[in-house]
Design brief:
Elements (H helix, E strand, L loop, with lengths): L2 H7 L8 H10 L1 E5 L4 E3 L7 E7 L2 E6 L5 E7 L4 E2 L1 H5 L7 E4 L3 E7 H8 L3 H27 L2 H17 L5 E3 L4 H8 L3 H13 L3 E4 L2 E4 L2 H8 L3
Antiparallel strand pairs: 1-8, 2-7, 3-6, 3-8, 4-5, 4-7, 9-11, 10-11
């Protein structure tokens, strides 16, 4: 693994001078994890900055009863641990690999040293935090104000636009239906019923992990609660 080459591909480090990037790369560590393996657990002591390089992981909270709420899906290029790198000592959530994955781990002290002297890195971090905050606000709105069909419709529209653009009508899920239910804040059974009803209504068709949207206008109206 050429850590420097990997870092050069990431949006997080775009515009950062070569010597600063080399400084970070020399102090970073690359680690691999199997599907189902924890990167870090809630309340674990941590003072590092992490970036997904390969694979996929989920950032989630869990209750004492074992219920899970997925907060964010982490894909290649996505950072996490930004709060623990600069501020708090314990990690506020759990991060688990959904498939075989590789991450970069950069000591928080090293990131702080470069960030305080390199404005471009700080701006990149602020942009990423702003995007993450926007997604979190949308998730809170969805879970608190929308029913499961609206949540699913909103998720599908957002995911299709992100992966294929505004005109995309097909989505290849990278997660299982059970994991999707955790994002929706629903049980797998409730999500299955919702998908079946939307399929019977001619709004979508699902084959394995492939979802094809048949009536995008109807899907958009459902997302808005109409």
């Amino acid at each position: 693994m050429d850590i420097l080459k990997q870092m050069q591909k990431l949006d997080l480090f775009q515009g950062v001078p070569a010597e600063k990037l080399r400084f970070l790369a020399e102090r970073a560590r690359y680690r691999t994890y199997k599907a189902g393996e924890m990167f870090i657990g809630e309340t674990d002591p941590a003072h590092a900055f992490y970036v997904i390089v390969t694979g996929q992981a989920k950032l989630y909270k869990s209750s004492p009863e074992g219920r899970e709420q997925t907060l964010h899906l982490l894909r290649p290029g996505d950072p996490f641990g930004m709060c623990t790198a600069f501020a708090v000592d314990s990690f506020p959530a759990n991060v688990m690999a959904l498939e075989e994955s590789g991450i970069l781990e950069i000591p928080g002290q090293v990131m702080e040293e470069v960030a305080t002297s390199e404005p471009r890195l700080l701006l990149n971090i602020i942009q990423l935090l702003s995007d993450r905050l926007k997604e979190s606000m949308s998730l809170i709105e969805s879970l608190s104000l929308k029913e499961i069909p609206q949540r699913l419709a909103s998720f599908l529209l957002h995911a299709m636009t992100r992966e294929g653009g505004e005109k995309s009508d097909r989505l290849e899920l990278t997660i299982t239906q059970r994991e999707l239910a955790k994002i929706m804040g629903a049980t797998p059974e409730a999500l299955s019923r919702t998908i079946r009803k939307m399929s019977n209504a001619g709004i979508l068709a699902m084959d394995g992990r492939t979802i094809r949207i048949l009536e995008r206008v109807a899907l958009a109206e459902m997302a808005e609660g109409e």
